[in-house]
Structure formats: C-alpha cells, structure tokens
Amino acid sequence: MQFRAVLGRIAGIGMLFTLAGCGGDGGVNSTSGGSTTPLAPAPSAVTPSGLSASTSFSNTMQSGNFVTLRAAATVDRPASNSGTASPTVQIAAADANNFISYNAATNVYTLNYTGSSGSQSKVDFTPTGARPTITANGSPDPTEVNFSYNDCYTSGCYSSNYIISHKANNFTYTYTAFGSNSSSSLSMVDSSSSASTSFFVFGFPTPTAAVPRSGSATYTLDLVGTYPGTGTGSVNFAAGTYNFSGNIAQSTAYAQTTGSFQSTGTLATTNGFSGTINLTVNQTIINPSSTANTVNNYTFKGSIGGLFFGPSAQELGGTFVAPNTSTQSNVSGTPVASPAYGAILGHR
C-alpha cells in the first residue's frame, strides 16, 4: 500500500469534518462552558515491557507496549432545531489507556484506546483477516494499515477509520510510526453530528543518556494529518531549542490546499520536546456545479509534544491538536471551528 493513499484518506477525513460544518459552525475553540485551553500531548504513562531488546521495526521484535504520544479532540455539532449553531470542541488530555502494543507470536499490533463512552476498546491489525480483525490490504507489514467502514441505520450514519503506518513521502521510518483513529456520526433525526480524531506516534525512543546535549542537527520533516506537508527541522541540542517549518500542499477532487506550518519550543532534560505549532491554510473548495469556487483562509494554533526515536536520536515524532483561530467566516457567514489534527515525523 502506498502511503500517498494514506495521506489522502486522513486529509479526506479532516476535510469531511470541515465541510460538514459549513453553515453550522459557531465560536472557535468553544465548549458549552466557554473557551478551552489546548493541552500539550505528552508521552503516556504506559511503561514499555518486553521491548528493551528491540531497537527498530523488524521481524525480530519482541512483544510489549510502546511508549505512545497521543493528541485527540472531539467536535460535537448540535441539532439543526436546537436554536444554536455553536459546536463544542473538546481537546483530550494524555491518557495512559491509549497506546500501541505488539504481539510477536501472532505478529499483531493492537491499538488500545478509550471509547466515546469512556470504556476501553482495542483494535487488532494483522496482515490478513477480516472484521473485526483489520486487514493490511495484503501487505506483509502489519504497520501499514488503512481501514474504513461505514454503516447507516434509520437513526443515523456512522463511520470509522483506522490507520497505522511508518511511511511518509516515500520514506520508511526505522524507529518511528504513527497511527490514527477517527470516527464520526450523523443523526438522521435532528442532523446533530459528532466527530472524534486521535493521532498517535509510537516507536523506539532514544535512551535519555543517548540524546545529544551538544551541537545541532537538521531533520527532514513530514506533516501528516488534516493538512499534510513537508519541511525542515532545526534542533539545537546545546541550547535545548528547536524550530520546525515547512509547506502544506494537498490536492483532492474536493479542494486545492496550500499553506505553511511552523513550530518552536524547547527540549526536555530527558528525552522529548514541546512547544507551539501554527498552521496557515489557503483552501479552495471546488464546486462541481459552478465555476464560482469557495476560497477559505484558515489559521490554527495549538500545542505539540514529541520524542526523539532511535539509538542516537536519528528520528523524531510528535502529535498535536491545533484549534482554529481564524477570524474569517465560512460561506455561511459563521466562524469555522474544526481544529487541525496530526503528527510531525522527522529523520536525518
């Protein structure tokens, strides 16, 4: 499976959430109790077990749990007859119950996550099989998975999408991978809807003692998520700072998207980095029945948290949710509330 298809699917999900809000979005980054403060994603409290002798994604991996970084948010839009057009945006904190595990005996990766009801759920990823075991579309590598399903009933429609990959822009990461769990529902009764997205980064973190404390390094970056892109990351290990920047580019049958992203922050005294991320997006929504396309200009700002991966920080990965800070309204004249989700991976 080519990773470009994965990018398209992720971007399509984000676009679905954005387009679904046209004409019904309200205040940016709002909740029923007022505005929210973005929470920086952080490594979960899950302690790696059995992976100490494993140093990369390979056929000789041992069973165990990965240290996993997660960023997640839910956008709930009210019923059309509720008297308000304001959605609620809830940004999830780090949760130790959300992590990726691996079973060497069966060659199965498992996404463990907290469901919308608060109960624990899990999804297995294997090279072959059928629902509820998710297939890797014939790939012998269970870390290359892109699976979706949709169901409609009298009460409403539901869809889910699961992705696990360690490939980006034709580069295969050795020590880092990412995952995504997205779900959405639309009520046929009152047109209310809910969309939840989680992004995970997992892999083989650099031991604290092996993280460089002097000099600097340049990383080639891959932005995956709602708005995919590429860029360059400069990490100053001596000063304990970093600067990531790059361009956003996505072309689909529904929209042409360009823009840029930038993230700056500090390095942890152990292994890790955290800071802010800003995205500027210029999006032309294609109207197939008219030559008058809709042009939107969005800005997003949020928190990002990440780790260095590999024996000597050869790679890095982090996750983010960036609420929409745009002042421009959409075609209906109401602000757009859907945040940008995703992950940044880098290699040198």
TrEMBL record:
The keyword Signal applies. Residues 1-20 form the signal peptide. Keywords: Signal. The keyword Nucleotide-binding does not apply. This is Transferrin-binding protein-like solute binding protein. It holds the Pfam family TbpB_B_D. It comes from the Bacteria. Residues 32-53 are annotated as: Disordered. SUPFAM superfamilies: OMPA-like. The lineage of its organism: Bacteria, Pseudomonadati, Pseudomonadota, Alphaproteobacteria, Sphingomonadales. Residues 233-333 form the Transferrin-binding protein B C-lobe/N-lobe beta-barrel domain.
